[in-house]
From TrEMBL:
This is DUF1659 domain-containing protein. It comes from the Bacteria. It holds the Pfam family DUF1659. Residues 3-64 form the DUF1659 domain. InterPro entries: DUF1659. It comes from Limosilactobacillus ingluviei.
Length: 68
């Protein structure tokens, strides 16, 4: 079996004044191997720009598989 990187999706989970029960923000087409510092920096920038609190994140990787 061969694997080929297809895409990454990043989802941030957090709360805000308008969403006290939580919200999810999705970002598609994330680079293949995002550095932890880059993800943390992006979350901090998102929190700074929106005034929301980011508590967690989920990185989902899609691979194309070739079965031979």
């Amino acid at each position: 079996m061969q694997q080929t990187f297809k895409s990454n999706k990043l989802q941030f989970i957090g709360t805000s004044e308008h969403h006290p029960d939580g919200y999810r923000r999705n970002f598609n087409n994330v680079v293949k191997d995002p550095a932890p510092a880059a993800v943390e920096g992006f979350a901090a920038a998102l929190a700074s720009l929106t005034g929301e609190q980011v508590s967690d994140g989920i990185l989902t990787t899609a691979l194309d598989l070739t079965l031979a």
